[in-house]
Fold each of these.
Amino acid sequence: MATNHATLDNQNARDPNEGSRSLARRVAEYLLDAGAVRFAPEEPFTLASGLLAPVYCDNRLLLSSPAARRAVCDGFARVWREEGLAADMVTGTATAGIPHAAWLADRLDLPMAYARAQPKKHGRGQRIEGGSVAGRTTVVVEDAISTGGSVCAVVETLRAAGAEVQAALAIYSHGFAAARLAFEKARTPVYALTGLDALLQAAQARGALSDAAIRTILDWRADPASWSARRAGP
């Protein structure tokens, strides 16, 4: 199965309710409006992967905006339709993917489950909640992708439980080469509604980033491991 790690912006997808503005740009602007994106080229954040980053994206802040939630659900439904996805279940990643998976499952009138990258540390120690996925075809919903490791772990969990994973959907992806390789290895196409390019364009249009800051961020994306190592010090 071929991997397609692309944003809708790169596919020139258009939102009919927003004229000529791409859905990727619209979602990026919702992220900025919600304060979900922080830029800190000089004082980088630490990602879940352990890498340092001049950009941090917390899509949980979109939950407070009905308009943003609808835009994300609309985008996921569009990908589902345009890519010909034919899954009979939607699976969210715990925890940030759960609400968006629930809204998408409701829109599509499909069953929904959620899965953890690691087993639950108490109770029955389950990694998948919401009923059996054995024999089902599912699409995984995540909020943001950096290296792709946590999503791919969920994909493998679902396959080990007997499910077929057709694709992964995400609100945002940094667009790392490492993530593309991870999803290729996992044999899972992945589609992100927006990405770093759309985010930088929206931020620059608002005067929120200098040219120097944008160059720093693009240097980071080109080689995040080396960029992180240089700033981590001895």
Amino acid sequence: MTPPRLSVRAPATSANLGPGFDALGLAVRLYNEFHVELRTDGELHIRVEGEGAGEVPLDGRHLVVRAMREAFERAGEKLPGMDLHCVNGIPHARGLGSSSSAIVGGVAAASALLGRSGPGGGPDREWIYQVAADIEGHPDNVAPCVHGGYTVAYRDGDSWGRPG
């Protein structure tokens, strides 16, 4: 039996737009891609090409892996071993939400591996958004990365809100 494989693509974002500091965000047509193949031996292997190659950790400290681990833990599961191949098109430390893309990509991959689905059978975007915003701490980059387009995001009690 072949271990499960999946791919996730997450966009760059621009946030802190105008007076909407920590609230307004916009998805941009620049992407990171994350390809995951589960391993039966429990090992973790990471390969990165493009932006950040040679600069980011290639172990459990990798941001995509940390996001996946958090998502699995929230579901009461343990992160399995995997081959993770990151193809990064979003520059790091340039204000384009590369960390949000990594977090959303990791949570989205975990969500798919956990078998979570949203209304209509697609990705459970609301769960992905809540987990990713908790990890990131600022929903302005995470919301457009998950939902696309132009977004308004805010804290609503114990959860992250987003109009309509």
Amino acid sequence: MTRIAVLSDVHGNAAALEAVRREVRASAPDAVLVAGDLVMNGPEPGAALDGIRELEAEGALVVQGNTDIAVVDFDYAAAFPWFTDGPPDAFRSAAEWAHDALDDGQIDWLRRLPAERRLWVDDTLVLLTHASPGSQTAGFDAALDASVVLERLSGTDARVICCGHTHLPEVRDFGWKQIVNDGSAGWVFDGDPTASWALVEIEGEEVRAQIKRTPFDALAVANAISARGLPGDVYRAATVRTGKPVR
């Protein structure tokens, strides 16, 4: 049996990442996958990125998310295509602040991350992507029409699609394919103010996945965000504190 830990959407929350890393280490997986959105919004982008790079040095596969594009290159149309008139000031200020908080080496590393990685486990192909096959911005939202979900699933031959982006942890088993959305290791939206990640087990043709929850000091992180004072930080702090998107 092969066990794979999946995490994503750290969003500069180094405290949550470190708590998740401890639990991931304790679970002793055979592989670790990190599905992007690593630095924007939280109070410690540099420390969070250093933690991810340590995971990569230990063998983890890491891909880039849409907010990572915003942070490294300020390409807001690529990062947030749903804002047809450009992103709000709160998004721009958070991206610029995170950019300034990173050094040149960190920026270069984040810029060079691929959009997707693939992992073969015997005869089972696993795709790591931020949102969905072929996209860093079009995710598997719960409200999507079933035909759109199937269309996005058909964009890969992978049996298992590991992703994030929605900040809502879930496992969807279609029989022929399985979506494993780990949620968010630091910025979750389902009302539970803990970090979420996923553990996938592959044994022969059988694929099992479960969502894991890891407590961290959400109040301390929320206070650090509030103290920063960027536009939108009061809402970001409330989101971390409650586990619900506050805008």
Amino acid sequence: MLSDEIVERFETWLAEAKADKSLAEPTAMCLSTADRNGHPSSRIVLLKGFDARGFVFYSNGESRKATELMENTHAALCFYWMSKGRQVRVEGLVVPVSKEECDIYFASRHRESQIGAWASQQSRTMPDRQVLEDAIAHYEEKFAGLSVPRPPHWIGWRVVPDRVEFWQEGDFRLHDRDLYVCDGDGWTVVKLYP
């Protein structure tokens, strides 16, 4: 579990980023994973939940990121809010989110996004765009007049941190860096050189 200090600090920074109208997507975070051979891969995903247990995101369970998370259950996140001069880096173990949490979040998505989750074979080679369009039309017809259920392959993950770094830009690249490291049941905070 994250300390109250980490939770409060992240919630404050995220709220300030959300209030900044120059940031198009303040919940965007770079997710870095690695396969069983240690080859890294990064992409932007959206933060969909946060509490003392960690940082939650959702995706297709058959995607490249999902395959890598099953092979190597450690990942890193990086939030960067340029206009605020702030960055938060997170490293930790990744665990599946409960089916109940997945169902609740999936039900809150736009219907078009729900249909897209059924139609897309994320990260696989697509012969042409029409194949995707046809799949979308198929699922729109299949679920016409019905609620769209969560596909069994659409899942969520929680990054359970063991390291969290708060970085604040400073003049002349003399940045302020606070690193929180889990040391068993508690957290130690240290200052890092810029």
